[in-house]
Design a protein that fits this description.
Blueprint lengths: L2 H15 L3 H4 L2 H6 L20 H11 L13 H7 L8 E3 L16 E6 L2 E5 L5 E8 L3 E8 L8 E3 L1 H8 L13 E2 L15 E2 L13 E2 L15 E2 L2 E2 L26 H29 L3 H19 L17 H4 L34 H4 L3 H15 L13 H14 L6 H4 L3
Antiparallel strand pairs: 1-2, 1-9, 2-3, 3-4, 4-5, 5-6, 7-8, 10-11
Helix pairs in contact: 7-8, 8-11
Length: about 425
């Protein structure tokens, strides 16, 4: 059977397996984020030429400006990560069969994921392709594969329709988005029955996270679901908590790093929903504008702005009870990737004592996706952020933000975020 046939069959079987993904997000997501037409004239997801990092990289390859280097042992993966400025210390390892290459994934051969703010690369041992997601600032995630075999002209192939079966579901807010889930994996990595997978983000209690993932680093007395298979939805937590090494779990030699860092995984979980919210309400606003329905859209817009700002400010973040310590260089290198203010502060600085970040506002405010939202959405987001950070918005949901938190975040933004509305500096409209 050739690789294309295997790809097709695997995709079909995965679609059947992953119908549970549609239930992962819970009833609220079904109600709050109904189906949205990706072929709407204001969107045309499949028809539009994407403006994303992989699309730009492919143009450079086609023109001869860039030649991907092929390593005899690692293939294109090391050079691809380097070209995309993705650090290998972002590596996290998932052993559930939740990829179209699922026959090759197991606790003995987990899939490796590497990421930055707008790119995600998946590598499966003995796989036929590398799996790539690349964020278009307006259109959302674009899905590609890259053949692992050496070629004179490497080509990223769009796999949107196959990937959208799971990546455009309620768990991804029904736009081409990201999914991180916690499941009950059996001994071979197969997730338990329908509905047994749960979408996770920074709101999810830590003891409910990481089923089906390897997790390295320490977290005190936390009993999470990582590093273990389940039997009748029960995890054997012996030798699964506070692991600083994966030796004995599987052969780590084929991987670029020996870790599946807990801090990298928590950062990825935050980033997924933040990205999805930005894309979702950007789509909705463009459709409302195109249809001339802005008046009717106002109530929905208010809901969207509240969703985005509440998540950006970590207002519903699950509390960290014991200090968390990663065991890769991710905790050091991630803060180095963003702007710092005059006092050397950054929204990418970690706390890891009681919350994920020291300064509670998402670093995704610097992203092209945030800047790419229609003014119709972005300007009210700025307004609500300003009102919360200056204490004008007294909604109790933001009570966990201290006066010092609000002041620090506002000062950091004033120093580091271009394009802030003038009232952020003057206090006057």
């Amino acid at each position: 059977m050739d690789a294309k046939s295997q790809f097709h069959i695997a995709s079909v079987v995965l679609i059947a397996m992953m119908t549970a993904a549609r239930a992962q997000a819970g009833n609220d997501e079904f109600v709050n984020f109904p189906w949205i037409p990706y072929d709407h004239p204001a969107i045309q997801y499949l028809q539009q030429t994407p403006n994303d990092p992989i699309g730009r990289l492919q143009k450079d390859i086609d023109s001869g400006k860039i030649q991907l280097k092929f390593d005899p042992k690692r293939g294109y993966l090391p050079d691809l990560l380097k070209r995309l400025d993705i650090n290998t210390d972002s590596q996290v390892l998932v052993f559930t069969k939740t990829s179209f290459q699922f026959p090759l994934i197991s606790p003995a051969k987990p899939r490796a994921l590497y990421f930055t703010d707008n790119l995600y690369v998946g590598s499966v041992q003995d796989g036929e392709v590398l799996e790539v997601m690349s964020l278009d600032p307006k259109q959302g995630e674009q899905f590609y594969t890259l053949d692992v075999h050496q070629s004179q002209q490497p080509a990223f192939v769009r796999r949107d329709m196959a990937c959208l079966q799971c990546h455009m579901s309620p768990g991804a807010l029904n736009i081409p988005g990201l999914l991180i889930s916690s499941s009950y994996p059996g001994p071979d990595g197969t997730p338990a029955s329908r509905g047994a997978q749960e979408i996770t983000d920074h709101r999810t209690p830590l003891d409910e996270r990481w089923g089906g993932w390897y997790v390295t680093g320490t977290a005190g007395e936390l009993q999470h679901r990582g590093n273990a298979v389940s039997h009748n939805r029960q995890f054997d937590s012996s030798n699964s908590q506070n692991l600083t090494s994966l030796q004995g779990k599987f052969d780590i030699s084929p991987y670029l790093e020996s870790t599946s860092d807990i801090v990298a995984l928590m950062t990825l979980e935050h980033q997924t929903r933040m990205t999805n919210l930005i894309t979702r309400f950007g789509w909705e606003a463009r459709i409302a504008q195109a249809e001339g329905k802005l008046d009717a859209f106002q109530e929905r817009l208010n809901f969207g702005v509240d969703q985005i700002v509440t998540y950006m400010l970590f207002a519903e973040e699950a509390k960290i009870r014991d200090p968390i310590v990663g065991n890769s260089t991710f905790t050091k290198t991630f803060p180095q990737r963003g702007p710092r203010d005059k006092k050397d502060r950054s929204l990418r600085d970690f706390d890891l004592q009681t919350r994920l970040f020291r300064y509670p506002l998402s670093y995704m405010i610097y992203s092209e996706a945030f800047d790419g939202m229609p003014d119709l959405v972005r300007q009210p987001v700025y307004r609500k952020l300003y009102d919360v950070l200056t204490g004008r918005d007294t909604n109790p949901k933001f009570a966990r933000l201290s006066a010092e938190d609000r002041r620090n975040v506002r000062e950091i933004l004033l120093d580091t975020k271009p394009g802030l509305p003038s009232y952020w500096r003057t206090g006057q409209e």
